[in-house]
């Protein structure tokens, strides 16, 4: 019995040395490659790849045992079918990463194959990190370039951490796909595209598929991950308030092509009743001042007042009007609150660098038009009181609804500060899925062309466009 125990201890000791030795050789191969600046320069996300291996002691992530090789097959299937996400498999080393290569290298255990295995393993990691970044940030994100994404966690997201987390999950593919945007508009497009490749749809044109591709790219540029948000889509002239699984839809008026409404993300902090309107300088100089010069009664007729740089109100006469015309930048204009006010009864405020906001309007007739690109850039919403009521209810401030009703009725100035700001997203999407079918909207600002040019190769490959 003693002899058997001695043999057992010696056997497991030898096995520990062998395995540890193999791990050390593996680590050395991975480490050497990741220390080679010329090799790293050929990777898409070298810093992310290095972080991934550092947390795994520089051992193989995909080729070191049967369980990992099984997971590698799942991962490789995901990259091979990147077209289901509107992406190209060729962006993820499709020539180097093959099932044949995986099966072959997975069965090699001799030292002479370690470098080939290490290269395959690293390319698999970089391909998956690239895929995760592409489905999360898009390929042509205007805010973040590849090197920036590789260097830092952005809004709590980091692809190498997402990959490490996915490797610990039972459903690897599902965990990876969690990196995609959570917005319903994106999910609808993704589901349609996935179904298109799964079963085919002869009624879908290549032009529609191209629209789906470029608008999925746009949606990947959005950082908001909340399931509750106010969403304005410019080309469809719509606002949708997504709250607690419900969706309330409103018509909107957006900016004219020359004074376009910007794409942005922010939060609605508060809204006000009976607002006065501080007229933007561009509107004052280009539109209101010429009217005043032509008609001295224009100010009073439209309830405007002019103020100097100190905030003092100017009495307008021929003398002061000449001075204002010489130096209009030194003056500002406000329109008093009331039924005549351009902002109407309610204005919703959110921080942004463009000086735009969401508001009511006295020109209700514009909501009956099909083309509603009519404003100076701000967004006018139909039935703003209903939206304000829903925001208060969502904010657990139902007791303020009666106060809101009275303030709107009496045109009384009141601020309603939300306890929890609500995300607001303004998008430019020229296709949406409605009742299971793609609906194309006019490209009113002519923004599709530049994105089509960026993605032209992808679209030709995916959808056989000519």
TrEMBL record:
Keywords: Cell shape, Cell wall biogenesis/degradation, Peptidoglycan synthesis, Transferase. The active site is at 359 (proton donor/acceptor), 378 (nucleophile). SUPFAM superfamilies: L,D-transpeptidase catalytic domain-like (SSF141523). It comes from the Bacteria. It holds the Pfam family YkuD. The lineage of its organism: Bacteria, Pseudomonadati, Bacteroidota, Sphingobacteriia, Sphingobacteriales. Pathway: Cell wall biogenesis; peptidoglycan biosynthesis. GO terms for biological process: cell wall organization; peptidoglycan biosynthetic process; regulation of cell shape. CDD domains: YkuD_like (cd16913). PANTHER family: BLR7131 PROTEIN (PTHR41533:SF2), L,D-TRANSPEPTIDASE HI_1667-RELATED (PTHR41533). This is L,D-transpeptidase. Residues 228-404 form the L,D-TPase catalytic domain. InterPro entries: LD-transpeptidase_YkuD-like, LD_TPept_cat_dom, LD_TPept_scaffold_dom, Transpep_catalytic_dom. It comes from Sphingobacterium puteale. One of its GO terms (molecular function) is carboxypeptidase activity. Belongs to the YkuD family.
């Amino acid at each position: 019995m003693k002899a058997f125990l001695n043999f057992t201890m010696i056997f497991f000791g030898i096995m520990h040395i062998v395995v540890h030795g193999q791990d050390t050789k593996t680590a050395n191969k991975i480490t050497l490659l990741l220390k080679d600046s010329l090799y790293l320069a050929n990777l898409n996300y070298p810093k992310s790849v290095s972080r991934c291996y550092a947390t795994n002691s520089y051992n193989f992530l995909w080729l070191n045992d049967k369980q990992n090789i099984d997971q590698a097959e799942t991962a490789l299937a995901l990259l091979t079918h990147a077209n289901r996400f509107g992406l190209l498999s060729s962006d993820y080393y499709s020539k180097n990463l093959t099932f044949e290569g995986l099966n072959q290298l997975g069965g090699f255990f001799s030292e002479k194959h370690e470098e080939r295995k290490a290269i395959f393993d690293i390319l698999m990691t970089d391909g998956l990190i690239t895929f995760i970044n592409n489905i999360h940030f898009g390929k042509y994100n205007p805010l973040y370039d590849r090197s920036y994404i590789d260097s830092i966690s952005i809004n709590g997201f980091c692809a190498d951490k997402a990959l490490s987390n996915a490797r610990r999950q039972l459903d690897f593919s599902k965990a990876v796909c969690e990196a995609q945007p959570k917005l319903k508009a994106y999910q609808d497009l993704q589901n349609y595209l996935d179904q298109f490749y799964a079963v085919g749809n002869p009624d879908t044109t290549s032009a529609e598929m191209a629209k789906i591709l470029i608008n999925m790219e746009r949606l990947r540029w959005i950082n908001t991950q909340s399931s509750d948000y106010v969403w304005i889509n410019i080309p469809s002239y719509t606002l949708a308030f997504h709250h607690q699984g419900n969706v309330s839809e409103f018509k909107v008026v957006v900016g004219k092509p020359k004074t376009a409404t910007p794409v942005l993300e922010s939060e609605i902090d508060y809204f006000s009743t009976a607002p006065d309107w501080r007229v933007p300088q561009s509107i004052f100089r280009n539109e209101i001042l010429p009217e005043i010069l032509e008609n001295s009664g224009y100010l009073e007729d439209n309830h405007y007042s002019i103020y100097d740089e100190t905030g003092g109100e100017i009495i307008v006469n021929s003398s002061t009007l000449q001075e204002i015309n010489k130096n209009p930048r030194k003056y500002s204009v406000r329109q008093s609150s009331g039924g005549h006010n351009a902002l109407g009864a309610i204005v919703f405020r959110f921080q942004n660098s463009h000086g735009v906001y969401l508001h009511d309007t006295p020109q209700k007739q514009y909501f009956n038009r099909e083309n509603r690109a009519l404003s100076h850039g701000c967004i006018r919403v139909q039935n703003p009181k209903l939206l304000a009521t829903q925001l208060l209810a969502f904010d657990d401030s139902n007791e303020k609804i009666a106060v809101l009703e009275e303030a709107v009725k009496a045109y009384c100035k009141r601020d309603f500060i939300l306890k929890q700001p609500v995300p607001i997203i303004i998008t430019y999407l020229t296709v949406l899925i409605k009742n299971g079918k793609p609906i194309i909207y006019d490209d009113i600002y002519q923004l599709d062309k530049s994105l089509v040019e960026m993605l032209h190769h992808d679209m030709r490959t995916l959808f056989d466009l000519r």
